Amino acid sequence: MRIAIAGGGLGGLTLARILHRHGIGAVVYEREAGRSARSQGGMLDLHPESGQHALDRAGLIGRFESEARPEGEEHRILDPAGRTLVHHLPRPGSFAGRPEIDRTVLRDLLLDSLPDGTVAWQRRLVAAAPRPGGGFELEFDGGHRAGCDLLVGADGARSAVRPLLTDVRPAPVSIVVELTVSDVARRHPELADLVGPGNLWAMGVRQVLSAQRLGDGDLRVGVSLPADRDLDACRSKRGLLEMFAGWDPGLTALIEAADGPPAPHRIEAMPTGTGWAHRPGVTLVGDAAHLMPPVGEGANQAMLDAAELAGELAAEPSDPGAAIRAYEKAMFARIHPIAARSARVHAMMLSPTAAEDIVRFFTPKHAGVD
């Protein structure tokens, strides 16, 4: 059985790694030119029941613990005046919670665990056509072609595989603007102290200013805004600072200190409850299957999808159709409530009463949900 995985993100690489551990080969087709072609983003917290579970199934939990930063779980939530509303302090050195790890480090960990040649770089899938005898003919940007018996779409928000299963498309839900402050402890120690070793959120009226400390010493700053805001107004520091007029200068200094111009982009999500009828020889994992607002679940659920699909394929090597059916049934049941909750949290963070709502959310009733 020739398995093609479209997309070399965390979900696709986790799937390839766990299949490899079961003696099942796969080829990962990735559009980027190489592992260092672009930044992989900030850091993420891996949840014990999903991301960490998948790494355990991949045989990589020990390496994860050697690279992750439990202190990165520290989380501060402030109001626009700079007053602390919530300050979560993790237990020192404990991996029992949701330790943070830089996305680049985690991706490299997965890449290093795969046999040479597993990832075919510079292969952006543009079309997949069913073959008369089963399986799919794959066409890549630049004219390269390949065939497979089983196709897994792990190719993210703009998946080229998804249209084989559903006509549903993502819709804009917000705007995120990204900035970077490099070598923050040396160049801007006051900002390093403000953010601490983990995450900071400052909650205003329908806008959020956030920052997270990466393991390489950089500070990743983000601005979240409703989808109906003007994207062009977000392309300069001056435009952003005007949006945050009246905020504490210690917070807006996060924007002023950024190394380069802001990088705004629209955030999209699939409708909650999205599913599809089973089709032989093809399925989806991660954002391709259930694109959600970025509130901490996307990467974790993508990796869990991969672990569960690999487990089903390993258990039913002679009947991949049954394996995919079992995976999809369980995935839909798991994802739909998580996607609904993610949508609620995302809407709450960009509401007029975000600070009040977030404080209520981070009460003991919701302990562990962050």
Beta-strand segment tally: 17
Instruction: Tell me the series of helices and strands, N- to C-terminal.
Output: EHEEHHEEEHEEEEEEHHEEEHHEEHHHH
Spatial order of the strands in the main sheet?
A: 5-4-13-14-15-12-16
Tell me, briefly, the overall form: globular
Q: What is the CATH homologous superfamily assignment of the largest domain?
A: FAD/NAD(P)-binding domain
How far apart the termini lie comes to: 41 Å
Report the top-level CATH class of the largest domain.
Alpha Beta
* H/I helix tally: 12
Please describe what this structure looks like.
- This protein is of the alpha/beta class and 370 residues long.
- The protein has 2 domains: 223 residues, FAD/NAD(P)-binding domain (3-Layer(bba) Sandwich), CATH 3.50.50; 99 residues, 2-Layer Sandwich (D-Amino Acid Oxidase, Chain A, domain 2).
- 33% of the residues lie in helices and 22% in strands.
- The radius of gyration is 21 Å and the shape is globular.
